[in-house]
UniProtKB/TrEMBL annotation:
This is Uncharacterized protein. It comes from Candidatus Vogelbacteria bacterium RIFOXYD1_FULL_51_18. It comes from the Bacteria. Pfam families: DUF167. Signal peptide: none annotated. InterPro entries: DUF167, YggU-like_sf. Belongs to the UPF0235 family.
């Protein structure tokens, strides 16, 4: 499953807001340095879909706030 996310780093708290079936707005507390924000986004998305963090991959947008993620769901 592919999802689109828009990430806001250095927010006051970690928040996931679902804006549609495949669109999310995610705020993370960590800064966008040394892939810290990307790793936190992967953790939050994994928790939202109840899968392991390793099953969430960033397909595009490694250095941009707009990202496309792949989530391997367990059926």
């Amino acid at each position: 499953m592919y999802i689109r996310v828009f990430v806001t780093p250095k927010a006051k708290r970690d928040v996931i807001i679902r804006e549609g079936s495949e669109n999310f707005s995610i705020s993370v507390r960590v800064p966008a340095e040394r892939t810290m924000a990307n790793e936190r986004v992967r953790e939050l998305v994994a928790g939202e879909f109840k899968v392991a963090k390793e099953k969430v991959r960033i397909i595009s947008g490694h250095h941009r706030p707009g990202k496309i993620l792949s989530v391997e769901l367990d059926y």
